Structure to design on (170 residues):
């Protein structure tokens, strides 16, 4: 486990929004939400928060992940509420300067976000090599330029699907 995830890290994450440093690069967190069961779904929400925290603390970005909090307000299994959440997410993506593609697998929602980002020619950063190749294939399949995608090996923690602290959330 990375030593930066100490007790109270989530409260520290919330503080970034109170500070609202407009000089920081606005980053959209693209990571899996859908899951086989409720425990994994909740884990994925918490991972989105962890990615936000890492992007803020270690990468100096103003990170946003609508799927880290919206599932508490909107029901993902109701089509109208899922559509509302996806629409809000795409609006945030459009207002971001970079897309951080986190974890080690692509969900259907992530594919939609990646295609949208490619159409907008947004720079994308992937942190796991296998996922990097998968993202490039997705972009190429849609006829977009895969040069907008880069692999970041320095921040490899963003490519993990678990950080070993999820037991405290169950």
């Amino acid at each position: 486990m990375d030593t930066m995830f100490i007790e109270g890290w989530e409260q520290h994450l919330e503080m970034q929004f109170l500070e609202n440093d407009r000089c920081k690069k606005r980053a959209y967190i693209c990571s899996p939400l859908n899951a086989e069961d409720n425990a994994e779904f909740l884990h994925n929400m918490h991972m989105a928060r962890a990615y936000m925290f890492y992007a803020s603390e270690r990468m100096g970005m103003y990170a946003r992940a609508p799927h880290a909090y919206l599932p508490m307000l909107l029901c993902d299994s109701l089509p109208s509420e899922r559509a509302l959440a996806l629409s809000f997410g795409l609006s945030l993506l459009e207002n971001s300067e970079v897309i951080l593609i986190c974890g080690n697998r692509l969900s259907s929602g992530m594919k939609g976000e990646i295609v949208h980002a490619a159409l907008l020619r947004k720079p994308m950063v992937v942190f796991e090599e296998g996922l990097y190749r998968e993202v490039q294939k997705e972009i190429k399949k849609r006829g977009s330029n895969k040069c907008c995608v880069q692999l970041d090996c320095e921040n490899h923690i963003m490519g993990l699907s678990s950080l070993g602290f999820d037991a405290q959330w169950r």
User: Anything to note?
Assistant: The radius of gyration is 15 Å. Residues 24-169 form a domain with the Rossmann fold fold (CATH 3.40.50.450). Helices lie at 9-19, 38-57, 79-94, 108-119, 129-141.
